[in-house]
Amino acid sequence: MPLLRSARFPAVLLLAAAAAGLLLANSPLGDAAFAVQGAHLGIPGTPLDLSVGHWISDGLLAVFFFTVSVELQYELTQGELADKRRAVQPAIAAAGGVLVPIAVYLAVVAASGQSGQAAGWPIPTATDVAFALGVLAVFGRGLPSGVRVFLLALAILDDIIGIVFIAVLFADGVQAGWLLGALLAAAAVAVLTRARDDRMTVGVWAVVVVLSVATWVFVLASGVHATIAGVLLGLAMAQLPALRARHMLEPAVNGLILPLFALSAALVVIPAVGGALSASFWAVTLALPVGKLIGIVGGGLLAQRLFGGGSDRLSFGDFAAAGALGGIGFTVSLLLAGLAFAGDAAVRDHATLGVLAGSAIALVASSALVAWRAAYHRRLKATAA
Questions:
Q1: CB 280 within 8 A of CB 120
Q2: Region 23-45: what's the mean pLDDT?
Q3: If you average pLDDT over every residue of the chain, what do you get?
Q4: CATH number of the domain encompassing residue 63
Q5: Would residue 110 be called left, alpha or beta, if left means φ above 0 and alpha means ψ between -120 and 50 degrees?
Q6: Per-residue model confidence (pLDDT) at position 29
Q7: Cross-strand partners of 357
Q8: Span 288-343, pLDDT tens digits
Q9: How far is residue 238's CA from residue 346's CA, in Å, rounded to a whole number?
Q10: Do the domain assignments include residue 178?
Q11: pLDDT at residue 234 is higher than 50
């Protein structure tokens, strides 16, 4: 259990699951894997008639978004983002880390003449918190706490932007009645958990679970992507019960939900891509490691110049390490790739491969940069001593 709460092991597990998915899809067992992924489970004629793949991306991943939103709620109220002045620097860096990759993606697509693939511009905007913190834990011994704080705040702000993109861009024929039902169910969770707060009995938790499942079903039926239910609940629930729920769910999220999603999302048959790779592949592959690095470093340096860094002032090398880590898109980028090109399986596969390739490049680059900066700071400490 402690292993699944660490920063290192979940990142390794996630990478192994993605590699397994890619290998499985291109092995003799590939057809069987796709058959399982496409098999429908549920009640026909209801919103609960989903394929196994959609149960993972729409259902299980909502639990992951719940845990992210609980962390976001904490950071906004008591953590690194509670001090608005301190949050300005990572906020501007996050903006740069979103806008520059979008510009890189659109530039590559425009240069290729495949303008129909411009819809994938949200894909390279995400940062995978688990992976980034995993690399930091493995290679970052000796880095000042300011670098980790900056990266954590940056990744959380990235999550906010990704959540907004999913909610606004990928809603499909929103039905207000179902959405209102979801909001009312989430509001009931908010009221109940605040009324009980630190007196949450088993019976109260049972009611909260039922209301949470109802919220998810209503969001699914509304046409808004179902993972938004996790966001609603994570922000609505009272902080103390929410943190307890997050702590309880963390091993399942790290050890089962995220690896299952990575395995399912990476089920891409490479030969099916055929001949030349499309613009979406090259655009994502370039925008994640390069666009993120330029955007985050540029935004961070600009913010530090405008507002100062105080005692947490970072150097160019520290920003570069954080920027390279920001290019590990992975989980949310894979989800965005599936949503952006849901109607075109071939382009979706190209974009998925781009996420895997771009994140792998960023993973290698960030590991080297983080190790270099950590060694530099260890030498500084030794000299000062």
A1: yes
A2: 88
A3: 86
A4: 1.20.1530.10
A5: alpha
A6: 92
A7: none
A8: 999 999 999 999 999 888 877 555 678 899 999 999 999 998 878 888 998 899 88
A9: 43
A10: no
A11: yes
Residue 133 has pLDDT above 80, yes or no: no
Residue 45 has pLDDT above 50, yes or no: yes
Within-domain flag for 109: yes
Angle between helices 176-196 and 202-222 (to 10 degrees): 160
Task: State the pTM of this model.
Answer: 0.80
Q: How confident is the model at residue 117 (pLDDT cuts 50, 70, 90)?
A: very high
Sign of CA dihedral 330, 335, 340, 342: positive
| Domain coverage including residue 255 | 2-170+225-384
Structure tokens at 345: 């399986």
Looking at the 3D structure of the chain, how many domains does it have? 1
Q: Are 353 and 276 in contact (CB under 8 A)?
A: no
Q: Is residue 264 part of a domain?
A: yes
Q: How far apart are CA 352 and CA 196, in angstroms?
A: 44
pLDDT tens per residue across span 156-172: 788 778 778 887 888 77
User: Highest mean pLDDT range out of 79-83, 124-128, 186-190?
Assistant: 186-190
Instruction: Decide if 127 contacts 329 (C-beta within 8 A).
Output: yes
> In the structure, what pLDDT confidence band is assigned to residue 271 with cuts at 50, 70 and 90?
very low
Half-sphere exposure of 280 (CA within 13 A, CB side): 28
Determine the angle formed by the axes of helices 258-265 and 8-25, rounding to 10 degrees: 30
- Residues near 40 by Cβ (< 8 Å), separated by ≥ 6? 49, 50, 51, 52
* 213 within a domain of the structure (yes/no): no
